[in-house]
Write a structure and sequence with these properties.
Length: 328
């Protein structure tokens, strides 16, 4: 009976892992006859799993949807990924699902093997989620980096810069930050003797090596603030400071965490520091905010605003005059 139960659970795992299996394929994987496969499929159906069967060329067995929601079979990597995602969602990083995420997390925590709890805790302790991310990252790389942050061990890796130049790096990992569309690692770069932020999608997964050297944590900057500053400044040709004639609360929702830094100046004004590759892109971002603004720096942005103001005034039929020739 124990062998039969284990085989049925393995069959369920196979059906969940792929859209379609033929009878002979399942029989080979399970080490049984196709007749035994048919019997095990019937057992799954009796338990409420909607297993569909189709005959002929291209036919086979398929786990359908509908009916009651049966328990899932997850491999270790999937279990860690689901648990961490639920904890992030329960913490409010996914709007509107906090309560449902908490209920699902409570159920999953009851059955999570103890050997996987360390993986989950490592990711939880190492990851700071500021905003949801859409850029995929290698799950094993993320898990390895998170464990290194937790265990305080040095990492060696190969990193691709923005210009695609690669360098070997020796680092002391501190914290992973999920911000905007990407994942970042705040770490102390031993060769440069300074803190650095690394985009995880630019780390070569095959090059990542966890050393046996443990380190004593240094006084570290705030991970979120450091990464935000790095994202705003380092990748861009131009960094601008704008005075916005609107309260900070009014514009904060329109400025993503990784797009700029807002400072309250009082008197219903605030300052925005942001970066871009082109002056026109900076102007477009400022106009999109929909509030009056002044260019504080750089001077070339001020000049470009004047040029565009004349072009727009002429396009509107105003003869190219800009009333008062004021800074925008």
């Amino acid at each position: 009976m124990a062998d039969t139960t284990a085989r049925v659970l393995r069959l369920l795992g196979l059906l969940q892992g792929r859209a379609m299996w033929t009878g002979p394929e399942l029989a080979e994987r399970l080490g049984v006859t196709t007749r035994s496969v048919r019997r095990d499929v019937e057992r799954l159906r009796e338990l409420g799993y909607p297993v569909r069967a189709s005959a002929g060329i291209g036919g086979g067995y398929q786990l359908g949807a509908g009916g009651t929601l049966p328990p899932l079979l997850l491999d270790p990597d999937e279990a860690v990924a689901v648990t961490v995602s639920l904890r992030l969602a329960a913490g409010g990083s996914v709007t509107g699902v906090e309560e449902s995420a908490l209920r699902a997390l409570a159920k999953l925590d009851q059955v999570l093997p103890s050997r996987l709890r360390g993986e989950v805790e490592a990711l939880n302790e190492a990851v700071v989620a500021v905003e949801g991310v859409s850029m995929p990252v290698d799950a094993r790389l993320l898990s390895t980096v998170a464990r290194a942050c937790r265990d305080k061990v040095r990492l060696e890796l190969t990193y691709s810069a923005r210009d695609e130049a690669t360098t070997a790096r020796r680092i002391e990992p501190y914290r992973v930050v999920a911000m905007g569309r990407r994942w970042y690692l705040l770490a102390y770069d031993l060769d440069r003797d300074d803190w650095r932020s690394f985009r995880l999608d630019r780390v070569h997964p095959d090059s990542l090596h966890v050393t046996t050297f443990r380190f004593t944590p240094r006084p570290a900057p705030d991970a979120v603030s450091y990464v935000r500053e790095s994202v705003i400044r380092s990748p861009y040709r131009y960094v601008a400071r704008l005075r916005l004639h609107a309260p900070l609360d009014e514009v904060a929702a329109r400025v993503p965490q990784n797009a700029g830094t807002l400072t309250d100046l009082g008197d219903d004004t605030c300052e925005l520091e942001t970066g871009a590759e082109t002056l026109d892109h900076l102007i477009g971002e400022a106009l999109w905010l929909g509030v009056p603004f002044e260019v504080l720096e750089p001077p070339e942005l001020r000049d470009r605003v004047r040029e565009l103001a004349e072009i727009l005034a002429e396009a509107a039929g105003d003869g190219g005059s800009v009333p008062g020739d004021q800074e925008t």
